[in-house]
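Changelog-adjacent note: as of this version, every example in the card shows the full chain rather than a window. The one below runs 221 residues end to end.
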Amino acid sequence: MAIISTAKLYEVQKYCSMTNHMWDGFWFLANKKSFERLPKDLQEIVTRNVNEAGIKQRADVKALNDSLATEPGAFSALQMGELSGMLLDRLDIEVVDHHPDPSLLSANHDEATVEETLLSHLLKSNCPVTGQPDWGSVQIHYVGAPINQEALLKYLIGFREHNEFHEQCVERIFVDVLRQCRPQKLAVYARYTRRGGLDINPWRSNFSAARAPSNLRNARQ
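Full-length structure tokens:
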């Protein structure tokens, strides 16, 4: 929000989704040899104060973000929104293979049918033409036996070294989840970061009652 405000991006952008992908790092640069020539006590003083300044800067940015979220005026024209769904990224997992493995996917068919939406911001594949990374958020809505969330997140992160176009990746996710977990209804939607100024946000569903997702442009787009 602070960056949007200072750069006045709201003048050219109407829609935005808050997905917490932006990391505003605090960088302090110094000559290593010169720093090491300082007495140890002075090194400790410099290091402590630099770290404290970084923490204070983050607090200032957060305060500005919080104030801008409700500020009238220029920001009133910017429609903010968050992708809905239970966030898989909260799970503590270990991933050892960075290629999609559908055998990881499973659902507990001994439990009652559920309807839920799962979300991850950790989808990343590579363009098969240029080799450039394609980062995206993926939203999976289904009706059926509860899907193993840890396994699903491992599967999605497994796309890290996979070379395929956006549409093909979404189709692969849809087909793999449908085959392995056998939900009654399934919809897969992905919003990728823009490259070449193009929005490519594939959506795949197997039930006609599914409504196309709202076209809220992702903050990273």
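Structural remarks: The chain has a mean pLDDT of 84.
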